[in-house]
Amino acid sequence: MRPVARKIMVIDDLANRAHDCDLLLDQNFYAGFESRYVGRVADSTRCLLGPAHVLLRPEFLEACRGLRRRDGTVRRILVFFGGSDPTNQTLRVLTGIDALQRPDIRVDAVVGSANPHREDVRVFCDSRPWASFHCQIPNMAELIAAADLGVGAGGAAMWERCALGLPTLTVVFADNQLQTTQDVAQTGAIDYLGWASNLSSADYAAAIRGLLDRPDDLVAMSTEALKLIDASNNGAELVIRAMNEVTNARLSG
After folding, report:
1. What is the pLDDT of residues 15-45, one digit of tens each?
2. Could you give the strand order of the β-sheet that contains 9-11, starting from the edge strand earlier in sequence?
3. Which one, 2, 49, 140, 153, has least CB within 10 Å?
4. Residue-number span of the structural domain to which 80 is assigned
């Protein structure tokens, strides 16, 4: 690409190979993430590393500007396991919440259009007055901001929740989610439950019940999540600014 490109940007999350580029973005959090690409890029390469550079949709920036401070009281829970959720963790969580017998707590269950179990989730929610069903929605930031507790998976959605300071019980579905989810948990920004495939409805119920009695822990989790990502500092804008700086430097050189 060098003969035809004035600048080259790489977006990576593996840090397991060398890159010939002017700008590299890896928005994930790992212990020691600052040195992940040492020896894998040229000394002149500008690296944007860590969740301070996370790429979020504009709606999250807007939600951040009016974000309320959570007090640890749980009045609303958001359940979202990504677009597909093939093992139907959503229904496991809802069944666990049902067993808690807390009709005073509202629950928003969000599924994607690719979720093979979305009809089962919808039927469950329709039969419980405390549960609301959402499918392929455009206002995820609004629901995250309104929630007091989240239950979901690692990956891109984890950064969306952290950006808005939502304390979350987090699970993993795949190997590429494991290390970063565990490392984020070490900061106190999330509560890591383990592999989704190993969890039952009773496990989710016990974890949620435990947090309901620990409002101070929920406040601390929210604070640490916000520290990881300053959503007022738009990661996309930072990347564009860095690309322009790299281009200008190459042109002037």
Report:
1. 999 999 999 999 999 999 999 999 999 999 9
2. 9-11, 23-26, 46-49
3. 2
4. 58-228
Question: Does any domain span residue 4?
Answer: no
Q: Clarify whether residues 21 and 69 are in a common domain.
A: no
- 36 & 74 share domain: no
Return the structure tokens found at 93.
């969580």
Closest to 167 measured CA to CA, from 144, 137, 141: 144
The residues, any chain, with a CB within 8 Å of residue 180's CB and separated by 6 or more, are: 28, 29, 30, 154
pLDDT tens track for 102-145: 999 999 999 999 999 999 999 999 999 999 999 999 999 999 99
Residues 127 and 31 in one domain: no
Element (H, E) at 218: helix 215-228
Half-sphere exposure of 202 (CA within 13 A, CB side): 0
Residue 161 lies inside a defined structural domain of this protein: yes
